[in-house]
Amino acid sequence: MTSQMESAQPPALDWTALGVFVFFFAAVTIMGFLAARWRRGDLSLLHEWGLGGRRFGPFVTWFLLGGDLYTAYTLIAVPALVYAVGAYGFFAMPYTVFVYPIVFLTMPRLWNVCRRHGWVTSADFVEGRYGSKGLALAVAFTGVLATMPYIALQLVGLEVVFEAMGLSAVAGKETPLLIAFAILALYTYSSGLRAPALIAFVKDAMLYITVIAAVVIIPMKLGGYGAVFREAQAAFAVKGGDTGVLLKPDQYWSFATLALGSAFALFLYPHSITATLSASSSDAIRRNAVWLPAYSFLLGLIALLGYMALAAHIKVSSGTMAVPALINASFPPWFAGFCFAAIALGALVPAAIMSIGAANLVTRNIWRPYVNSNLSDAAESRIAKIVSLLVKVGALACVLWLPTQFAIDLQLLGGIWILQVFPAVICGLFTRRLRPSALLCGWLAGMIAGSALAWINGLKPVYAVAFGGGVYRSIYIGLIALAINLLVAIVLTPVVVTLRRKMTLDRTLEMDYEDAAV
Amino acid sequence: MRKLLPLLLLAPFIALLAVPFYNRAEPSVAGFPFFYVWMFVWIVLAALLTWIVFRGSRA
């Protein structure tokens, strides 16, 4: 056993691992199709297909959101970053700590107001709140734009798993991906949000088993956690640069601002909002803000796998292969197949929800207002189903024909972009003092500034800002762009007020945001 | 008093944005440098505080 840990052989196809993998994948596929009958509703209505009829209680929502937010790419990329640079990769932990208080304070209000008006997307809310089609379009456009590369990265996660199982060497890179993709597309089309909700139960259970087994068994083989940290530190000492199991002082600001900015961004993504709005009550969301940190704990443990890979002397050319190689080296084939199935399902659940979230936005906020305003309910649901397919085909094309780095870079930009709807969506939940046209200008300024800063910075997430006296601090570009965005919106609001005294219509009342009296 | 309860949710932000404070190896727990212990502890504490605010808002 221990000799295995020393060498990460080029993966050869293992039939036991593949058999276990195919078994779980097939079982989940059947579940995906049967999900259409679960809590049966009329799937020709958008809120039934795209929000599961808003009937998911706290328990189902916990699995759905957990399965949605902690994606396959997270499972691979977070330990990959830890494997490459160490402590800096752990910004994911404060990030997930910050997220839930924010969710607790904002999302119940969004749920209440959307429920009261039958809204399905964040752009629906923005249109109703500000009476501005333009601002709603900006929110919808940003959401779709930020989601596409996110879906592409889930497919990259699948690719990594197939490669680690030795499947790519036998069946080629494209075929397994195309099969997985076709399955995903079909059950999303037929069952809508019910499919990922049901699959999330299995996926999350498998994931907890995988991670708990890994964080108990692997360190035992390596001589305990003290040894893991020592070995990792020794590996970083050889590597040099800004690496180590503790942060370097010049990483403090980027660590903190990346965590904070990512936390603000997470619940602006269409897939997070879709899963949130599918809850059955605002209290279901509050309870989830209390219990979802269990997944954050899991994520911290997953990040540790990066150190274990170093301590086990796993040598891989690309950091993304660190965890799969560690799994291959540490577990018997049947359990490796189980772990890989867990990661692969970790790609399918979020990919399904992301494509549904994007489809809801396109149908409700782009197609309906700009292409055909008198859609029947059935036609609206049909268009959403087709759009969910198109979004996935786009992501697949991106993965098959463009370099992987392209999807990763776009995903980084996506995080910066999605933050720019914060003033319209989140501030809008509490105040309407900022005028829609000022918000639109702020959004444009934030989008341009954020993209430009990322571009001139070689597509790195942080930018060194001068703080007088020759002091430079590296700050997450998404937050810099958000500050510019807010500043523009705040400065322009009084200008807009003097130019155009008439207020646009607000279709919401203060009581719409509060919990309904029982 | 009840109106002030959500202010408890500021605590996790203060605790985890104070990076220089917890970026240290000692005191370590079970082989984990303090940096990691602090972050894991705050996952639990943040959830606990959220629960307190949730309960407090409906009592």
Structure in words:
The complex is a heterodimer of chains A (518) and B (59). With 518 residues, chain A is mainly alpha-helical. Helix content of chain A is 73%, strand content 2%. Chain A is built from 23 helices and two strands. Chain A is globular. Chain B has 59 residues and is mostly helical. Chain B is built from three helices and no strands. Chain B has helices at 10-17, 19-22, 34-58. The mean pLDDT of chain B is 90.
Radius of gyration of chain A: 23 Å
* Net shape of chain B: elongated
Distance between the termini of chain B: 12 Å
Question: In percent terms, what proportion of residues of chain A is strand?
Answer: under 5%
How would you characterize the largest beta sheet of chain B? none
Overall pLDDT metric of chain A: 88
Strand order of the largest sheet of chain A: 1-2
Q: Based on the structure, what is the oligomeric state of the protein chains?
A: heterodimer
Let me know the number of strands of chain B: 0
* Proportion of helical residues of chain B: 55-70%
Largest sheet of chain A: 2 strands, antiparallel
Fraction in helix of chain A: over 70%
Main interface: chain pair and counts: A-B, 36 and 30 residues
Compressed to H and E, one letter per element, the order of chain A equals HHHHHHHHHHHHHHHHHHHHHHEEH
**Uncertain stretches of chain B:** none
Short description:
The complex is a heterodimer of chains A (518) and B (59). With 518 residues, chain A is mostly helical. Chain A is 73% helix and 2% strand.
What descriptors fit this protein?
heterodimer; A: 518 residues; mainly alpha; two-stranded antiparallel sheet; 23 helices; 2 strands; 73% helix; 2% strand; globular; disordered N terminus; B: 59 residues; 3 helices; 63% helix
